Amino acid sequence: MTLQSRTDDPVFVNLLSDAGFKAVYADPANKPLLIYLLNTVLPDDIKVSDILEYRDREQRPDTISSKKTVLDLVCKDTAGNILGVEVQKKVDSRLFSRCVFYAAGQYHSQLLSGGDYAALHPVFEIAFLAQNYQHEHPEQWDANHIVSHYSFIEKRTGECPNPTIFIILAEIGRFNKSKEECLTTRDRLFYWFRHATEFKEKPEWFDDPETQALLNATEIAAFTPEKKEIYDQDMKNEQDIEYEKSICYREGIAEGKREHALLTADNLLKKGIDPQTIAECTGLSLEEVLSLDKGQ
Questions:
Q1: 131-155: per-residue pLDDT in tens?
Q2: Residue 127 CB contacts under 8 Å (≥ 6 apart), including other chains
Q3: Are 176 and 293 in the same domain?
Q4: What is d(CA 113, CA 285) in angstroms, rounded to the nearest whole number?
Q5: I want to staple 234 with a disulfide (CB 3.0 to 4.6 A). Which of 19, 120, 218, 256 is the partner?
Q6: Which domain holds residue 149?
């Protein structure tokens, strides 16, 4: 069945956008989908049976120069584990440090109201990445190995005295299997994370209950009016943030080029090069070059 939509409108949400992820996985009505997603990426010895609590992480910039968080979902399971989940379109050198920072904050916050260290539960910070993470040995990572687990362990023996903080990275950008190669529910989940916005109707080969439920949850036309309004506002906020980031980036590039041109012009003036020639070579105006000359 073909869904009715304008050709330029997506039919399904982008799960690698903050707004799309929130619409699906922060909705308690989709709790089974969240549980399946978590169990897909968690270590084999950790299994979530139920989610007791949902809460949004405080919305603030991660650092002065990074994006403001639209959604970081934090939830707690029946075992007391705290699970922070986010999506990242771009991967930079600060990613891992950010994840540790967030996880440490969640770990520390468990005792803010008093209590004993014995009451501390493990914290799992999970990031779904649209791009590849830069591993030390990239040849060990492929479409069958896109989830990495990091934790505190003793260097020589691998001993972990107490489970505390875990960082989990799911590199969706590395998942390059074709639909014919997606033979498991896990593969279809990752495939939909990466390709959902390319579809205008539900793929028939998503024939198992879990992925059919995911299709239904990501179909924008199936949202209630209230949910659609929230989703549209979240999308607008996310686009505004991306636009602000692009403006800042372009302004930073332009300012850097100008500073370089001024420095070059100043050095050429000191070598006795004609100001008009310097202006033509650097792209500065003659007045700007002459003002440097007067300042010497």
A1: 999 999 999 999 999 999 999 999 9
A2: 85, 86, 87, 88, 95, 99, 167, 168, 169, 170
A3: no
A4: 62
A5: 19
A6: 18-222
Residue range 151-181, pLDDT digits in tens = 999 999 999 888 999 999 999 999 999 999 9
Q: How would you label 210-249 residue by residue, b for 16+ Cβ within 10 Å and e otherwise?
A: bbeebbebbbbeebeeeeeebbeebbebbeebeeeeeeee
Quick one: average pLDDT of 252-267? 78
Last residue of a domain, one of 222, 257, 285: 222
Q: 196 CB contacts (<8 Å, ≥6 apart)?
A: 12, 13, 14, 15, 218
**Element counts in the chain: helices (H) and strands (E):** 8, 6
- Which of 201, 222, 243 is the last residue in one of the domains? 222
Residues 51, 189: one domain? Answer: yes
Rounded to 5°, the CA angle 172-174-179 comes to: 80
Q: From the CB of residue 38, how many other CB atoms can be counted at a distance below 10 Å?
A: 22
Tell me the whole-structure pTM to 2 decimals. Answer: 0.77
